[in-house]
Every structure is written in structure tokens, then in C-alpha cells.
Amino acid sequence: MRTMLLLLLVLVLVLVLVLLLELALTLRPSCSCSFGMPPLAVFELMRRFLLAQSIIKPFVFTALLTLPLHWLGLWLLVDPEAGLGFDGLAIAHVITNLAQVGISLAWIVYLQPHDPESWNGVELRGALQPARLWEYVKLAVPEVNPCC
Hints:
By secondary structure, this protein is an all-alpha fold. The chain has one domain (2-10, 35-147). It is 74% helix and 0% strand. The protein has 6 helices and no strands. It is flat and about 60 Å long.
């Protein structure tokens, strides 16, 4: 739970910095950054949660289902004559990320491949205790850094 909160906080900070940089350089904000990173962060959280328990099957299944969707999205959205070009590439990538999150989340919620004792629900009071939060931040920051 603490990892998820810390990762989401870092993600919001990165998104704000990227959007401010794009606006400062008078670029239009990109679809891929603002809509593509949150699903990617959620997918990474789910992947790490299950990989810590040596569960790989949901992600193989997710990859097999989303790969044809990604190819179709690229074919329809990137084509220079009928598609959107580079913007279509970002949109296809965001659609694929959302599909990965949806399929993985459905797999985890309905099939529950994980150990039932590994997730007891969300307790914000326990996750945000100031006395123990700093110790966790010292452990979590190096792990979050490669994600961003």
C-alpha cells in the first residue's frame, strides 16, 4: 500500500514537471505522457505484486491479448494517409496500456491467483503512519526510481 501511494505521488510530480516543461517550450502537451503513464504505473504495481509471489501467467495472457490489439491500433491510427501519424502512435500506446491494466485487474480480482493473506485490503491509517513512513520511503525510493 505504501509503495502504491509513493509511486502515485512520484508519478504525479513527474507528470506535472513534464507538462510544465512542454508548456514552457511552447509545445502542445502530449497524449502519451498525460494519459499513458498512470495506466503504466498501475500495471507495474500489479506486475510487481504478483511477481513477488512468482505468478507470471496473468501477464503472459495479457501480452497475448493486447499484442494484436496494439498491432490493429497502430495499423489504423498511424497510417499517414488515413491515420493520425505520430499522434496515432501515442493514442494506440495509451489504448494498449489501458487494455493491459483492465485485463490484469480483471484477472487479479476475479481469478485471485495471489495468496489471500498477501492482501488484506486498504488501510490508509496504517499506510500513512508518520513514524514508520520515513523508514519505508528510504527503502521505496530506490525501487520507484527505475519506473520513472
